[in-house]
Design goal:
Number of helices: 19
Bound molecules: Double cubane cluster
Shape: globular
Oligomer: single chain
Largest sheet: 4 strands, parallel
Helix content: 40-55%
Strand content: 5-15%
Distance between the termini: 52 Å
Radius of gyration: 21 Å
Length: about 425
């Protein structure tokens, strides 16, 4: 069926037939998982709208920004300091890597035993299905896990790629390296945009990104109420959208959603009855449209009340200090904030264990589901330590390893149900 965006997609060199198929599948999937929920908040209409226009209106906005001479920078990791991108008047978008489509193409140039997230972004590019990637003037990779690090070498044959080096430890020399990397990235962004990043512009960008993080912190505080006022699926979607919608609009809309939520919390109105098992997710990021496990959990009679993940609290927990007035001071504040990220790629990574236990206690969860993507070594390895830390705190944990396919849905559902039954 023709759409108002066909010309734009054609100009972006998308595979129009395959793309139409993708949108249809996505629409059906969204309907089943999201629109079928009962008693959703009015504010979630914004989520429905953004999702329905994910490859439409938002891409049109990116094209308009490009026509005005602004650059579009795509990222795959919360380590990339988007404040520097915004300070150079460029647009920053998190690139989705949560769909199975394109896997066959990806496996032609990547080992089969690569995690689904990596195969997904490569597959999207090779299959010409992602208008975000096609809109990017630069894609920023990072040396986090080995899979990503090596995949960017291959990806660079297909898209303009720049790779940031991320330290693997948190000693003083690692901080020095990270500081130098931020400087190198700043220079790259200035070269790309032809703009100089000033203290005033950087401060403005820091405030903008902080305010987006603050609204997400507010959302997390409100959703922690008992009875749970919003589904975990919806909060995951909010976090996913935060990576690609316009930050000003996003912050305003989620602020409205929070106002509505606040009234629900005051009135003690839950989306599920009091007594519904409260679970927390922890582990690999769930990139849009990866909703499989949250849906399985919430359709099995539990509710998700927190996500310890990059598409969750890891990305919103820490703010950048806004007080410095000099460029040097602000850059230093960025270095500090990003250096606190507790990704499993670090060794040792005890902060993450502390965060998980603290979060599980604060949220009064009945259990934690540790989610690992198949072939993700850092999170699979770390899940043993997470299990031990949670056991010491008397919090049950279920470790799930899966990918984006639907083949294991029944098996996963059985495991989730068995876990719920054994909860005290
Ligand atoms: S800061 S979690 S976004 S690296 S799932 S590709 S780790 S094999 S995504 Fe991540 Fe940045 Fe860390 Fe966060 Fe590798 Fe694992 Fe795949 Fe992963």
């Amino acid at each position: 069926m023709p759409t108002p965006y066909d010309d734009m997609w054609e100009k972006l060199n998308l595979d129009l037939t395959a793309h139409e198929g993708l949108l249809q599948v996505l629409g059906k999937f969204y309907g089943d998982i999201y629109l079928s929920q009962k008693g959703r908040l009015k504010g979630t209409e914004y989520l429905d709208f953004v999702l329905s226009e994910v490859h439409g209106l938002r891409i049109k906005e990116l094209q308009e920004a490009k026509a005005q001479g602004r650059k579009v920078v795509g990222t795959f990791c919360v380590f990339v300091p988007e404040e520097l991108v915004l300070a150079a008047d460029a647009v920053c978008v998190g690139l989705c890597a949560g769909a199975e489509v394109g896997m066959d193409a990806a496996e032609k140039i990547l080992p089969r035993n690569t995690c689904a997230l990596i195969k997904s972004f490569v597959g999207f590019k090779l299959s010409r299905l992602c208008p975000f990637i096609e809109s990017c003037d630069l894609v920023v990779g990072e040396t986090t896990c080995d899979g990503k690090k090596k995949a960017y070498e291959i990806f660079a044959d297909y898209a303009p790629v720049y790779v940031m080096e991320i330290p693997q430890m948190k000693q003083a020399c690692d901080r020095d390296l990270w500081q130098a990397e931020l400087g190198r990235f700043k220079a790259k962004i200035e070269e790309l945009t032809g703009k100089t990043i000033t203290a005033a512009k950087l401060k403005e960008a820091v405030r903008l990104v902080n305010s987006r993080r603050q609204v997400l912190q507010r959302l997390n505080r409100l959703r922690a109420a008992i009875p749970t006022p919003i589904s975990g699926r919806d909060v995951l979607l909010v976090n996913q959208i935060s990576f690609y919608d316009d930050p000003v609009r996003f912050t305003a809309k989620i602020g409205e959603l929070c106002d509505e939520l606040e009234a629900k919390v005051k009135a003690r109105q839950g989306i599920v009855p009091e007594g519904t098992p409260r679970l927390m997710l922890s582990g690999c990021p769930m990139a849009v449209p990866n909703w499989k496990l949250p849906y399985l959990i919430e359709s099995s009679g539990a509710v998700i009340v927190g996500e310890e993940s990059c598409i969750g609290t890891r990305n919103t927990r820490d703010l950048v200090d806004e007080t410095p007035d000099t460029l040097e001071g602000l850059l230093d504040a960025l270095v500090d904030r990003y250096f606190r990220i507790d990704c499993a790629c670090f060794t040792p990574n005890v902060e993450r264990l502390d965060h998980i236990v603290e979060m599980a206690k604060d949220l009064k969860v009945d259990g934690v589901v540790h989610y690992g993507l198949s072939f993700c070594t850092p999170y699979a390895m770390e899940s043993f330590k997470v299990a031990k830390a949670l056991e010491a705190a008397n919090i049950p944990m279920l470790a799930i390893e899966t990918d984006y396919s639907m083949e294991d849905v029944e098996q996963l559902k059985t495991r989730v149900e068995a876990f719920l039954e054994m909860l005290p």
